[in-house]
Amino acid sequence: MKVLLTGGAGFIGSNFVRLFAHNEFPKFSHLYILDKLTYAGSLDNIESFLSLPNLTFIQGDILDKSLVSNLAKSVDLVINMAAESHVDNSIAYPNQFIMTNIVGTQTLLDACLHNQVSKFLQVSTDEVYGSIASGSWDENSKIAPNSPYSASKASADLLVYAYHKTYGLNNVITRCTNNFGPNQYPEKIIPFFIQRLVAGKKTPIYGNGNQVRDWLYVDDHCRAIYIASLYGKSGEIYNIGGGKELKNIDLANMIIKFLGFNEDRIEYVKDRPGHDLRYSIIWDKIAQIGYKPKSNFDIQFNETLSWYVNKYRD
Q1: Catalytic residue among 35, 126, 220, 276
Q2: Is 138 a catalytic residue?
Q3: All domains of the chain in start order, with CATH
Q4: pLDDT tens, residue by residue, 153-180
Q5: What angle, 0 to 180 degrees and rounded to 10, lies between the N-to-C axes of helices 218-231 and 11-21?
Q6: pLDDT tens track for 68-108
Q7: b or e along 191-224 (b: 16 or more beta carbons within 10 Å of the residue's beta carbon)?
Q8: Catalytic member of 32, 61, 84, 149
């Protein structure tokens, strides 16, 4: 199976490429990587794999209709990981999120439809569900996004579903919780905190830090996407969770303790607008098609922290 992976030089994408290069996705014969190489994507993340004969890198934009259509002619599956994803940036610059996350997705859908690509997989987020005080969302829960980022992802999800219902396009949507692991751009909370602490600065915590997130190791997420791409039913949504809910303040304290610092390294700052209090999902559905996490949170979390400490202390 020949695959077009968009956003393959970013955080999740580059880890997907690494697993592909290590033969974890045996049903994929060739991986075409399309990435615009914006600030959050870097060739350094995948450079060691670019010489592989079954991997091709193309620098380009998913908004480029001609390029996307030409690439779609050569593949059986499109996995869309390309996205603007930082909530703070979406508040400041929502237009960029509308163009990439919504119009870019539509460009890919059109290319798949017109070139009869066998399957399209949209990588989405649990943030489309909004905030939940107790309990957990399943795939039938209503979407109620609270930020321009999550609204753009929810809109893209609706487009994907509409292309299935209207045109019969074979597609699947996955919605993951917060990912952690190597190669994440330091606007995200774990590398951001470590970079600041290593530099002798404090870690800013929005509000009281009681916002709860479920943490998913990026390799498990990538494996779940692989399974959904093969066995996910057309028109269906699959939640992907990690099963480790943590308050942001607790996460910060874990990082601070790992680095040998004290709680005086925390600085509480004004909460951001529309900040969701808690995300939590039920992910039994993807388990039913063969997904089972391989990672141990404590081990992978410590390995991840060590990876960033080494990176920022160099």
Answers
A1: 126
A2: no
A3: 2-183+215-242+280-287 (3.40.50.720)
A4: 999 999 999 999 999 999 999 999 999 9
A5: 70
A6: 999 999 999 999 999 999 898 899 999 999 999 999 999 99
A7: bbbbbbbeeeebbebbeebebbbbbbbbbbbbbb
A8: 149
